[in-house]
Amino acid sequence: MGNRLTQIATRTGDDGTTGLGDGRRVPKTHLRIAAMGDVDELNSQLGLLLCEPLPEAVRELLVVIQHELFNLGGELSMPGYSLLKIEAVSALDQALEVHNAALPRLKEFILPAGTRSAALAHVARTIARRAERAVVALAEGEEGVNAAPRQYLNRLSDLMFVLARVLNRANLDGLGGDDVYWKSERLARNEAEDS
């Protein structure tokens, strides 16, 4: 691995370039830098979510995910390296299965709303989707992107959707308690027929 940061303001990026883990310098507009930035933003959003009251199992899961996202970002910064293991994707699949099994079936699309923690999880979900798109674009444009980062971000977005529902039900801030359904015409008809 490259040198550890000992100085934050190096001024080497003043020319519009930034360094990769392999020593190359690329423009800050490079697809690889965009993907790394989206993954970093996602990790920061999870850090914000971790400031909220959370069920302990969710908290522990999110901390593991933050470490895996750091591995993912490191892999993106060093073309040709593999830091994110396929086992990390399997762990997300398992978490998805466990948390989704405890939830009632959806009647309709839900809004990204409810408790503050659920809303923050939805923001993380959308950032994960953006990061996934950035990794896919990078993979289409050049070599050096493994499958695991794309798969991890795809599963993580799904997991954040499920965790938002879990957090609404946990209702640890006392302001939520359930999914906030989209008021579609179809749902209104179904409810009218059920009455």
From TrEMBL:
Keywords: ATP-binding, Cobalamin biosynthesis, Nucleotide-binding, Transferase
Protein name: Cobalamin adenosyltransferase
Family: Belongs to the Cob(I)alamin adenosyltransferase family.
Gene3D superfamilies attached to this UniProt entry: Cobalamin adenosyltransferase-like
Keyword Transferase: yes
GO-annotated biological processes: cobalamin biosynthetic process
Gene Ontology MF term list: ATP binding; corrinoid adenosyltransferase activity
Taxonomic lineage of the native organism: Bacteria, Pseudomonadati, Pseudomonadota, Betaproteobacteria, Burkholderiales
Top-tier EC class: transferase
